[in-house]
Design goal:
This protein is mainly α. It is built from 3 helices and 2 strands; from the N terminus they run ααββα. α2 packs antiparallel against α3.
Amino acid sequence: MRLEEYLDQAVAAGHTDHDCVSVIRRLSRAAAQITALISRNGVASDLGDEVGGTNSDGDSQKALDVRAEEVILDSLAGS
């Protein structure tokens, strides 16, 4: 079963609401965009470059971290 079908069934059965499903769909599209970005450019390309700063785990922040956050925030804008 595809995610879209599952979400439609979950709403129809009253297990979740349209707002929650909207966020899940937006995150799903963001994940697909990030996957495509990595597939196209590879992590070994400039996406693996350090861009300064550290993330919450103390690791150096990479270009992929920054780009992925942008994609996710753009996807969730307006939700």
